[in-house]
Amino acid sequence: MNFETKKKEFFERLGETCYMVLATSHKDYPMASTMTCLVFDNAIWMQTDKKFDKYNQLLNNPQVALVKNATQIEGVAQLCGHPLDKENEKFAQLMKKHHPESYEMYSTVETEVVIKVTPHKAVDWLYEAGDSSIYHIDFVNEKISVQTYKNGK
Fold first, then answer.
1. 37: β partners
2. What's the rounded Cα separation, in Å, for the pair 147 and 144?
3. Cβ contact 65:73 at 8 Å
4. Spatial separation of the C-alpha atoms in residues 153 and 147, rounded to whole Å
5. Which listed site, 21, 74, 105, 145, has its alpha carbon 20 to 30 Å from 119?
6. Which band of pLDDT confidence, cut at 50, 70 and 90, is reported for residue 127?
7. Half-sphere exposure of 102 (CA within 13 A, CB side)
8. Spatial separation of the C-alpha atoms in residues 19 and 40, rounded to whole Å
9. Whether the Cβ atoms of residue 92 and residue 108 lie closer than 8 Å to each other
């Protein structure tokens, strides 16, 4: 199984836009938030307000987890400036295309910030013909392993 092919399939299955749960934590205080996400450049992008607890958690601990359906992702978050900054042009264009109401409501708010999550690991469950295949994807070491799971075995 070719790593680059599986990585491409993985990001395509997430879609260009989706809703995911973002988990953050700092000093034994975990939080989970449903986020509107964009997927491009082998990363998952979203935005939040600097006034929210998750922003402060990310400042202190960039290690995050994301979940979409049966796909779990661990990665590192990077704060990338305001949504309308020049370096976030692609983010702003895709947000405007897929989520025009959110774009209009939030992207001009002065305290908004873009978050880029670079995946390090993923566990991706695929269900086909009554069987479950669990793909373990290691983005850092560019490795994939597959586990078949059927009837608890």
1. 18
2. 10
3. yes
4. 10
5. 105
6. confident
7. 20
8. 14
9. no
Sequence-distant (6+) residues with CB within 8 A of 145 are 135, 136
- Is the whole model's pTM more than 0.85, yes or no? yes
Amino acid at 28: D
Residue type at position 95: M
Q: How far apart are the first and last CA of the chain?
A: 23
Spatial distance between the Cα atoms of 96 and 107, rounded to a whole number of angstroms: 9
Of 7, 9, 17, which Cα lies nearest the Cα of 120?
Answer: 7
The SS3 call for residue 37 is: strand
pLDDT for res 126: 87
* Residue 84 backbone phi and psi in degrees, to 5: -100, 5
Angle, vertex CA 110, rays to CA 105 and CA 114, nearest 5: 80
Q: Pull the structure tokens for residue 76.
A: 């590192």
Report H helices in the chain: 3-14, 53-60, 89-98, 100-106
* Residues belonging to the chain: 153
Question: What's the CA gap between 61 and 67, in Å, rounded?
Answer: 18
* pLDDT given for residue 151 in this prediction: 65
In degrees rounded to 5, what are phi and psi of residue 104? -65, -40
- Residue 137 to residues 15, 59, 145, Cα–Cα distance (Å): 17, 26, 7
